[in-house]
Amino acid sequence: LESLDYIREGKADHVSDDYKKITGEKPTRIKSFFEDNAESFRPGRNRRSRNLDDM
After folding, report:
1. Domain count for the chain
2. How far is 23 from 17, CA to CA, in rounded Å?
3. Phi-psi region for residue 44, left (φ > 0), alpha (ψ -120 to 50) or beta?
4. Helices marked H in the chain — which ranges?
5. 55 within domain boundaries
6. Which residue, among 20, 1, 3, has the nearest Cα to 12 in the 3D structure?
């Protein structure tokens, strides 16, 4: 719960440029990521089943 208080108080709003330094690319905003990949998170979506025989 302390983590949620930390976020709610605006103390977790720092954004670093580490991703860009490592990959050379601008990071995607989380909202854009979920909008672009919404179908992957819908309930009832067919998921590839993992079978031990396939390993």
Report:
1. 1
2. 10
3. left
4. 2-8, 18-23, 30-36
5. no
6. 3
φ and ψ at 37, to 5 degrees? -120, 25
Domain for residue 5, yes or no?
A: yes
Structural domain containing residue 24: 1-37
Quote the tokens at residue 25.
Answer: 């690319």
Please report, for residues 7, 18, 51, the alpha-carbon distance to residue 33 in angstroms, rounded to integers and kept in the order given.
20, 18, 29
Please state, in angstroms and rounded to a whole number, the distance separating the CA atoms of residues 22 and 45. 33
Q: Does the residue 8 lie in any domain?
A: yes
pLDDT tens digits for range 18-47:
999 999 999 888 899 999 999 998 888 666
48, 42 in Cβ contact below 8 A?
Answer: no
